[in-house]
């Protein structure tokens, strides 16, 4: 499995969102897009990350950027997660896992001495031409949304060079 890197064209997808829309990545151009992949709804780290992205969503949108959270959870799970925590970031369901695989975020993980398959928390900033401008892998949730916001600002100020 190859992992897309900065400079690569971001793998395109169409996924259902928790607000009833279907989101196709390529249709969002020329807006910059932030995709954050997270393991599971309603877990502590994922909640921290989703709450922080939601808190900064207006600032991302003021820069013309769209932000989406992606996991393998169902749309129903996403809706409950969103309602419970007052989230504003749209959540996409990759139930089949194809998008997770295309971005190289699905694979073996270890926690508490156990090995299992899952999503490695990762974020991708995609520029207006559909290229990956930045990739963060094995993300620590706290403060990450603010770091990504700074990268979007830098992208907007510096043109489309990643």
Mean pLDDT: 92
CATH topology of the domain at 39-148: Glutaredoxin
**Portion of residues within helices:** 25-40%
What is the topology, as strand order, of the major beta sheet?
5-4-3-8-9
Highest CATH level, the class of the domain at 39-148: Alpha Beta
Regions with pLDDT < 50 over 5+ consecutive residues? none
Number of strands: 9
CATH architecture of the domain at 39-148: 3-Layer(aba) Sandwich
Shape: globular
Estimated structural class: alpha/beta
Describe the structure in your own words.
It is built from four helices and nine strands, in the order βββαβαβαββββα. It is of the alpha/beta class. It has a domain at 39-148: Glutaredoxin, CATH 3.40.30.10. The strands form three sheets. A five-stranded mixed beta sheet has the order 5-4-3-8-9. Helix 1 runs parallel beside helix 4. The chain is globular, with a radius of gyration of 15 Å. It starts with 13 loop residues before the first strand and ends in a 5-residue tail after the last helix.
Gist of the model:
The protein has helices at residues 44-62, 75-85, 98-102, 144-157, and strands at residues 14-16, 22-24, 33-37, 66-71, 91-93, 106-111, 114-119, 122-126, 132-137.
Could you outline the blueprint of secondary structure elements for this entry?
Elements: E1 14-16, E2 22-24, E3 33-37, H1 44-62, E4 66-71, H2 75-85, E5 91-93, H3 98-102, E6 106-111, E7 114-119, E8 122-126, E9 132-137, H4 144-157
């Amino acid at each position: 499995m190859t992992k897309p890197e900065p400079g690569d064209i971001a793998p395109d997808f169409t996924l259902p969102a928790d607000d009833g829309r279907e989101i196709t990545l390529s249709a969002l151009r020329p807006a910059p897009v932030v995709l954050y992949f997270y393991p599971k709804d309603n877990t502590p780290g994922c909640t921290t990350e989703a709450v922080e992205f939601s808190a900064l969503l207006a600032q991302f949108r003021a820069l013309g950027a769209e932000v989406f959270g992606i996991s393998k959870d169902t749309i129903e799970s996403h809706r409950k997660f969103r309602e419970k925590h007052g989230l504003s970031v749209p959540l996409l369901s990759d139930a089949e896992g194809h998008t997770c695989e295309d971005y190289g975020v699905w694979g073996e993980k270890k926690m508490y001495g156990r090995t299992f398959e899952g999503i490695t928390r990762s974020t991708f900033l995609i520029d207006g031409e559909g290229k990956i401008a930045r990739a963060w892998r094995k993300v620590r949730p706290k403060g990450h949304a603010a770091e990504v916001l700074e990268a979007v600002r830098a992208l907007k100020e510096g043109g489309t060079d990643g």
